[in-house]
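Homework-ish question, so no full write-ups if that breaks the rules, but can someone show me the predicted structure for this set?
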Amino acid sequence: MIDKLHINSGHLHHLLKQMLRIRRFEEKCAELYSLQKIRGFLHLYVGEEAVAVGAMSVIKPEDYIVATYREHGHALARGLSMDKIMAEMYGKSNGCSRGRGGSMHLFDAEHHFYGGNAIVGGGLPLAVGLAMAIKKLHTEKAVAVCFFGEGAVAEGEFHESLNLAALWQLPVLFICENNLYAMGTALSLSESEKKLTSKAESYAVEARQVDGMNVVDVEAAVAAAMETVRQQGRPFFLECQTYRFRGHSMFDTELYRDKDEVEQRKNDGPIKRLTLWLQENQLLTDHQLATIGYEIGEEIGQAIKFSEQGEWEATTELYRDVYTEETPR
Ligand SMILES: Cc1ncc(C[n+]2csc(CCOP(=O)(O)OP(=O)(O)O)c2C)c(N)n1
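A: Not a homework solution, just the prediction itself:
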């Protein structure tokens, strides 16, 4: 048995709970989608939870986050309320983006959560812009953290962003969530250089790889990367090797990958891994696990109630924030 003295089991329970919150929340969203309570696109993060949870655990409140359309987990782990996230999924005006963004555009300035971006690669220049603002405004040592899929490395924004971040020495951490497939296209079919860290290094950006299915490894890797960016004021690239267990979105026949491959990866999923490890080392009782499950169930039930009670935005409000109400000078 391992030496319990050096293990903070309370912290590990917290990480497990965060991953389970995301998993259960999204499973409920899939159900609500089939009931047409949630409409539009819905991209689930199931299988990838260790990345957002490990990373958010060490990212500070003053840092800035930019994510993709697969961002429910990032928003939850960042601390946005589940009520407001669920209401946004419903398209209700009590949602975090007042019901205007939906699943792909969760946004909350108070939590420095700058989306939710539907455009592949679109978040990278935004993060570089935020990092430039941090540098120019001499804000306390904040870091802009950008999450994106490996599909984004084929976009011009990736190359322009890494180049400028390195050229101008900006405090930005690029976290690439490499789940091997960009919709139905395997990385190996689209990239001549398959080693993503080499792409970053070619722009003089320091780069590392980490097992994105191990939440503790991700946490340690992100902590080290953040320290480098914060102290040295330069960009860093971290590739988290992960895997999504469900389709790209709710519409995906998944003909591009083998069912056995998916099953194999599920058996070694991030939640299963941490739960088993804690149990094998007598650091998690059945009662503790049941309590975590119960609390998450209550939180989800409350979020649904909040969303059902929310109002649709009045049609008279539809032009607000589309055109300026002030006469431009
Ligand atoms: C510029 C642009 N091109 C194409 C699309 C359509 N599209 C949406 S998701 C996606 C795949 C992106 O894969 P990846 O970046 O690996 O992220 P993942 O979905 O795997 O998390 C594509 C091509 C888009 N949204 N934006």
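Now go work out the reasoning yourself. Hint: The mean pLDDT is 95.
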